[in-house]
Design a protein that fits this description.
This protein is an all-alpha fold. Among the domains are: about 140 residues; about 200 residues, no CATH class. Strands 1-2 form a two-stranded antiparallel ribbon. Helix 8 packs across helix 10 and helix 21 crosses helix 23. It is globular and about 80 Å long. Keywords: Cell membrane, Ion transport, Membrane, Transmembrane, Transmembrane helix, Transport.
């Protein structure tokens, strides 16, 4: 509960404006002023723009200090969000003053810039929420599911456009990148796909790579989840409609616990990514392909750990994991596979595991029963992983192909390609495999990951429900039962519609790309290659064995939309165009039609 006095609240809006100006000034400096290790060592970063940034940081810190003092004078307890913002701003002000006046080593400039970025983001989100509350106050409190989807879609488009503008700046790219390619790269990162039109390692500086990392981190957590987390950090409360939106995204029933749920999702994500980064750091020690200076090695480990967990498929190696020296790094590949599998499994399973652990630690005699969702997700994911790996391994061994690998290497490649069906990081040249192998990968990419996870596709539980529904109809059973539970008819209908819409979108998109890119479609395996590409985009997989950098602007934009729709889900996407109707009280007599 925020008990700040009314007098301190008068400084909230000016402080948010100043904090947003800090973010804007920082982005301008990063995009247009060259910052590297040598320039920072020579104090070349101290320029009028940096001095303006320092001044804004000090002003913001002063405003937060006044708010905190006024709250204490009123004998009120400061909110945790106020203390957090004050701590960030104070530390940023101290490091900024130390570097500007050369009182501390210039390397602390990176710390001050990072703190300024975090503080500025929090202020910008707080200002956006404040403006949004003022604008939406006269509107009705009821928000339809279609409007929530529209907000999510607009957030995604806004993230892509803002990130693309940063990517084309001189500070973010080491080689010229067109705005369309920048939009494509940002859409690929935000949707956790991994398709690329430019090489990340060769074309982007540390700033460009950081922008892509932020994009696929936000895309994996969910833009709405990330936004609400930042709003909670700045002391904003979630409206009931917002809590219902997040609970729907994370497949959670208790709306009252959504704030704690959001914090848990963020903490679990960061913890898993930290563990993965540590594993990659030690597995890459001594590997000549990876820079061995401590700072860059840590950066490589963090980037690839986050990329793997988010199933984004982007790497900093010229030929992904097929790069000479990385294709033989089996320990790091095992870490990356575990990270990709962890992200694909879904937050819902982790949250249920944490709930059961808490109940056991509190010595409750009756721990919660595993939900049908967790039961279905874990079993279907393991079955698809096992069966898919066996099929790919057999095809890799017995189907004629151009691969020159042993049996063990082929089996390892099959496991990598199956687990990475949502990640899309190439370990070998997929073009060398036979057509049946590629068709199997198309099916796996179409199935994808799990709800509330970082993967895409129609989702494994949805596909499993459709298969079980077919079996139910063939057996003539009345209800679809699973784990001593009857699956709701609405759930089954939604699963069938999701698969049908996904199949229709992939089919239609394949034909559109073949019309837009006749030279690509006229290749020896044009239809299969186009289907593979479109399914990779729709399933947010990122697998690709062809160069799409010379595609037309329309094709790149269409694939970008496909990636975003694939991340949203086709059923959710259709709510943008079709408004759900209330059930009609009139029920007409049934009739039968001949189907055979």
């Amino acid at each position: 509960m925020n008990r700040a006095s009314d007098s301190s609240k008068t400084l909230v809006l000016p402080e948010l404006i100043v904090g947003s100006l800090v973010l804007l000034t920082l982005l301008i400096e990063l995009c247009f002023v060259p910052l590297d290790v040598e320039s920072i060592k020579a104090h070349a970063f101290i320029n009028p723009l940096h001095l303006l940034l320092a001044l804004l940081v000090w002003v913001q810190c002063g405003m937060l200090t006044v708010q905190l003092v006024q709250t204490l004078l009123q004998h009120d307890r400061p909110a945790r969000s106020t203390l957090l913002q004050f701590g960030l701003s104070a530390l940023c002000s101290v490091t900024m003053a130390g570097t500007v006046f050369m009182l501390i080593p210039p390397g602390f400039c990176w710390l001050s810039l990072g703190l300024s970025l975090v503080s500025g983001f929090m202020s910008a989100f707080g200002l956006s929420a404040l403006i949004g509350d003022r604008l939406m106050r006269p509107s009705t409190a009821r928000r339809s599911s279609g409007s929530s989807v529209l907000i999510y879609f607009c957030f995604m488009i806004g993230l892509v456009l803002i990130s693309a503008l940063i990517l084309i700046s001189p500070g973010a790219c080491s080689a010229p990148v067109s705005f369309i390619d920048a939009c494509f790269m940002c859409a690929s990162a935000a949707s956790n796909t991994g398709l690329t039109t430019v090489n990340v390692a060769d074309n982007f500086t540390w700033l460009g790579r950081t922008v892509l990392l932020i994009d696929f981190e936000i895309g994996a957590m969910g833009i709405m989840t990330f936004t609400y987390f930042v709003l909670l950090m700045v002391g904003r409360r979630l409206a009931t409609r917002d809590s219902m939106t997040v609970s729907s995204i994370l497949d959670h029933d208790e709306v009252s616990t959504v704030p704690a749920l959001i914090r848990t999702v963020i903490c679990v994500t960061l913890l898993i990514e930290l563990i993965g980064a540590v594993g990659l750091y030690f597995s890459w020690l001594g590997n000549p392909v990876v820079p061995q200076d401590t700072a860059r090695l840590i950066g490589f480990a963090i980037f690839h750990s986050v990329s793997a967990f988010c199933n984004s498929g982007l790497t900093l190696f010229p030929d992904n994991m097929a790069t000479s020296g990385m294709a033989e790094a089996y320990v790091s590949q095992g870490v990356l596979m575990l990270m990709a599998f962890s992200g694909m499994l879904g937050f819902g399973v982790y949250l249920e595991c944490l709930t059961r652990m808490k109940r056991r630690m509190s010595h409750r005699r009756n721990p919660l029963r595993w939900s049908t969702h967790a039961w279905l997700v874990t079993r279907v994911t393991l079955i698809i992983t096992l069966v898919g790996t066996i099929i790919l391994a057999l095809l890799g061994i017995f189907e004629p192909n151009s691969q020159n690998q042993g049996i063990a290497e082929t089996c390892w490649d099959a496991l990598w390609n199956n687990v990475g069906r949502c990640c899309g990081t190439d370990r070998s040249n997929l073009e060398d495999y036979g057509p049946v192998y590629k068709i199997t990968l198309v099916v796996l990419m179409f199935i994808g990951g799990n709800p509330a996870g970082t993967g895409g596709g129609v989702y494994a539980p949805v596909f499993a429900i459709c298969v079980m529904e077919v079996c139910r109809v063939l057996r003539g059973e009345r209800d679809l039962t699973l784990y001593s539970r009857c699956i709701a008819r609405a759930t089954v209908d939604k699963a069938v519609v999701t698969v049908v819409l996904g199949f229709m979108w992939v089919t239609g998109s394949t034909m559109i790309i073949m019309l837009l890119e006749p030279q690509f479609a006229a290749g020896p395996n044009g239809f299969l290659d186009t289907t593979f590409l479109v399914t990779s985009a729709f399933g947010t997989s990122g697998y690709s064995y062809f160069d799409i950098s010379d595609f037309s602007t329309v094709s790149k934009l269409f694939l970008s939309v496909t990636m975003i729709f694939g991340r949203l889900g086709m059923f959710t996407t259709m709510l943008l165009f079709i408004k759900p109707r209330d059930p009609s009280p009139i029920r007409y007599p049934e009739t039968k039609l001949p189907l055979t």
